[in-house]
Amino acid sequence: MTFDEFWLAYLGQHRKAGTRLCHYIGTSVGLVGGIGLAVWGAYLAAVVVAVSGYALALAGHFLIEGNKPYATKPLWGFYADLLMLKKSLTGELQAELQRLEPADAPVTQADVRH
């Protein structure tokens, strides 16, 4: 499997804007908070914040998307999460979502906003 194949499968599990928003918030809180607290020497708090951020990202799958997290390759998944955030911020995500198979649930403009 190439990263591009993984990326499309990953996007297919993140069609709903709310799921992606949970990932954006969870990843940002987990990374910034976790690293910031670790730098200050608050290691236990850093772990709690990082795990909480990850939990928020997971919750989006169960509560919003109605699927299970796509965790076949954890390092690629982490990179794909950061790439999804970057493409959302730069306006490139809509084009990526349009690459998904038409047989899957359609991607609407409301799903692309976040």
From TrEMBL:
The chain crosses the membrane at residues 21-40, 46-64. The keyword Membrane applies. This is DUF962 domain-containing protein. Keywords: Membrane, Transmembrane, Transmembrane helix.
